[in-house]
Amino acid sequence: MNMEILWTYLAPYFLADVNELRYIQCFRPCFKGDQQVLLEEGRMLIEYVTMNAIAIRKILKKYDKVHGSVNGEHFRSKMRAEHIELLQSPWLIELGAFYLNFRGLDAGECAECSAQFSFHFDETKSALIMSLPGSIKLEHDLTCSICLDTVFNPYALSCGHLFCKSCACSAASVMISEGLKAASEDAKCPVCREAGVYGNSVHMSVLNLLLKKRCKEYWEERLGAERDEMLKQSKEYWDRQTKYMIGY
């Protein structure tokens, strides 16, 4: 079985799981005011994601062992390159942040979501750490690659990379008030240089809430700086428009 056949068999499962993660957006309207139900739904979604991701890893490893090939490992590499491997998905970061937010834990505490996995926010490393069965530990770096600080008002581009909104807008040459949807199709991700990744960017609102709770002083400082930058951009824009209209 070659790589193309392997992809045909397994890709639909990955894509279906990624779409399933979008269910997180329906949490609030579906379960208004019921915190326990929200926690249970969050736990079930995280468990669903991790079980599927670990199962796929085992299948690919077994495939390589049985057939004496490296196609399984190549398939995993293809997943990472196309940003559809579940355990690297920004949606998993949102689910982890969601669970930590609703558990109401203090900084440094670990959310034992179940006997199978746990989440921990490490403020000193600016990372969301997930522990899985089989001694698997995933560390999602929450550092913006542009300002090199903890992401503020974070957005995930369709390539999977996280940035502060203001940093991403600067990279895409659009005003903060315009938002990333206004970016050109030719605008590229500052990290992987993939084009057309801004139009389907996702606001990581749950992660933003976690950072607001855990890094209060930093968050307030960045909020003030973003507002100042928006006012500056707005003033410069209207100055240019005025000069254009009156001809000097």
Description of the molecule:
This protein has helices at residues 3-21, 27-30, 35-67, 71-81, 90-103, 165-171, 205-214, 216-246, and strands spanning 110-111, 118-122, 127-132, 136-141, 154-156, 162-164, 202-203. Mean pLDDT is 76; it is low at 13-24 and 105-110. It has a four-stranded antiparallel β-sheet with strand order 1-2-3-4, covered by helices on one side. A hairpin with a 6-residue loop joins β1 and β2 (118-122). It is an alpha+beta fold. α1 (3-21) packs antiparallel against α3 (35-67), α3 runs antiparallel to α5 and α7 crosses α8 (216-246). It has eight helices and seven strands.
- Detail the poorly predicted runs: 13-24, 105-110
The overall pLDDT average reads 76
Largest sheet: 4 strands, antiparallel
- With strands numbered from the N-terminus, the spatial order across the biggest sheet is 1-2-3-4
Distance, first to last CA: 68 Å
Q: Helical stretch count?
A: 8
> What fraction of residues sit in β-strands?
5-15%
Q: Based on Cα principal axes, name the global outline.
A: globular
Question: Into which percent range does the helicity of residues fall?
Answer: 40-55%
Sheet/helix structural class: alpha+beta
Query: Would you list the SSEs in sequence order as H and E?
Result: HHHHHEEEEEEHEHH
Beta strands, count:
7
Rg over CA atoms: 21 Å
